[in-house]
Amino acid sequence: MTDLWDERKKALENQYFYKEEQEKIEKLRQETREQLIRSHCRNRCPKCGDEIQPMTFRDVPLDKCPGCGGIWLGPKDLKTLAEKDHRTWFDKWFGEEKE
Ligand SMILES: [Zn+2]
Description:
The chain is of the alpha+beta class. It has two domains: 1-42; 53-98, no CATH class. Helix content is 59%, strand content 12%. Strands 1-2-3 form a three-stranded antiparallel sheet. This is Transcription factor zinc-finger domain-containing protein. Residues 44-83 form the Transcription factor zinc-finger domain.
């Protein structure tokens, strides 16, 4: 009886540690995947995957994608640009792109 009980106890312990290790491994796997995604996507265009290039437009730093022409603005950059020339900045911006 004692041996059976000990075996059962050991089996339960093993099961506990196995489950705990599996959870740790899964967590580590997810963290690694997340880091990999971040390192691969850093400074990359979310649309076409090309490397985005920093540029300055009217003293406002922007990021532009040479692949698809996408432009990224910081949180306050659009407001800054709009305030600088609120009537024509949009036309000029896209007018310059066509030339
Ligand atoms: Zn792009």
